[in-house]
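The records we work with from here on pair a chain with its fold. Taken together, the C-alpha cells spell out the fold as the letters spell out the chain. The record below shows the convention in full.
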Amino acid sequence: MYPVIEYENTYKLEPDAVFLPGKVKAIIKEVLEENLKGQTYKANLMASRCMALSDIIKERIRQLEMPRFKTVVLVLVGENKAQALSVASQCLWNKDTDNFASCEYSKGNLHVVAMAFGVYQE
C-alpha cells in the first residue's frame, strides 16, 4: 500500500496562470468539428454522445496546464428544426480569476452548444 501524502496549505489566493477563453473556445470548436462531421441527430445516441464530447473537451483543456482550475464542461445537443434556441447559465464566481468559453456547431438537423467553465480553486 502506498503511504498517504499530506500537503501543507499554500495560502495562495491568486493563480499563476489564467483561464484562457480564446484557446478553450478553439479546443471546443476543434473537438465538435472532428467528432460531429457528417453526423445527424439521433435521439437514442445523443446522451452518450454528449458525455463523450464533454470528456474529450475536458481532457484537452487539461493539457493547457492551468493549475488549480476546476473545469466544468456542458454539452447540449438538439435537433435543428428551424426554431430559436437560447442557452443561459448563471454562476457564482470571482470575476478576476474565473472565466468561460462557449461554441456552437450546427450542420443539417444537428445543433450543439458546448460551454466550458474554469473556476480557480483557492
Q: What stands out?
A: The mean pLDDT is 91. Residues 21-120 form a domain with the Ribosomal protein S3 C-terminal domain fold (CATH 3.30.1140.40). The chain has one domain: 21-120.
